[in-house]
Amino acid sequence: MADDLDAMTVLRSTGAELRRVVSGLDGATMRTRPFAGKWTPNEILGHLVDHERAMSVRLRVALFEGDPAVGAYQQEAWVAGQRHNERDPEEHLGRFDVLRADNIRLLGEATMEQLAREVRLARGGTVSVEQMRSNYARHDLHHLDQLRRYVSACRRD
Predict the structure, then answer these.
(1) Do residues 93 and 19 touch, judged by C-beta distance below 8 A?
(2) In the structure, what pLDDT confidence band is assigned to residue 2 with cuts at 50, 70 and 90?
(3) How many helices (H) does the chain have, and how many strands (E)?
(4) Strand partners, 118
(5) Are 51 and 92 in contact (CB under 8 A)?
(6) Structure confidence by residue, pLDDT tens digits, 60-79
(7) What is the pTM of this model?
(8) Above 70 in pLDDT, residue 4?
(9) Distance from C-alpha of 133 to C-alpha of 135, rounded to nearest angstrom
(10) What is the mean pLDDT of residues 12-36?
(11) pLDDT band at 155 (very low <50, low <70, confident <90, very high)
(12) Is residue 141 part of a domain?
């Protein structure tokens, strides 16, 4: 990664860091909306589960299909439609761990040739699988920072 961070290290550590950030928080705090129009901490966890599902498909398309093209999804609609805020945070964390372990295995087994493969993006342009992996880690870091800020704001209320 460009920021002297190793993408695989970030990806491997995210589940434990998520658990650390929300450790000891009750369900009411996790379901509190700290900022109008923004997700709750619980919805952030649900989004991360959705992103794991999407990455599962994207990675398989990128690694194994000819002329790979990956699509986008409407994250707000997924979070609302699945009622992520009504779920138990432990349910989100458990799903995240299972999906992430599978995606880590897949990336860990990828060859240099597979990592260099170019993938067409639904919104235009191309990206290599290696760049996808870096973006995946950056997504984790972004949402971990967001989760820390939102949890802090919920605790002040």
Answers:
(1) yes
(2) very low
(3) 7, 3
(4) 128
(5) no
(6) 999 999 989 998 899 999 99
(7) 0.93
(8) no
(9) 5
(10) 95
(11) confident
(12) yes
25 or 3: whose pLDDT is higher? 25
pLDDT of residue 123: 86
Torsion of CA 113, 107, 140, 97, to 10 degrees: 170
Please say whether the beta carbons of 91 and 34 come within 8 A: no
- Enclosing domain of residue 23: 7-156
Residue 94 falls inside a structural domain: yes
Structural domain contains residue 1? no
Q: Which residue in the block uniquely carries the two structure tokens 């999407």?
A: 54
Q: In what helix (H) or strand (E) does residue 120 lie, and over which residues does it extend?
A: strand 118-121
Check if the beta carbon of residue 46 is closer than 8 Å to that of residue 87. Answer: yes
Cα 18 to Cα 16: distance, rounded to the nearest angstrom: 5
On whether the CB atoms of residues 2 and 132 are closer than 8 A, the answer is no
Q: Roughly what angle, to the nearest 10 degrees, separates helices 7-22 and 41-64?
A: 160
- Residue 10 in contact with residue 141, Cβ under 8 Å? yes
Alpha helices in 82-128 (DSSP H): 89-109, 112-116
For the chain, how many structural domains are there in total?
1
Answer whether residue 144 is part of any domain: yes
Q: Which residues are within 8 A (CB) of 63 and not within 5 positions of it... i.e. 6 or more apart?
A: 106, 110, 114, 117, 129
Query: Phi and psi at residue 80, in whole multiples of 5°?
Result: -70, -45
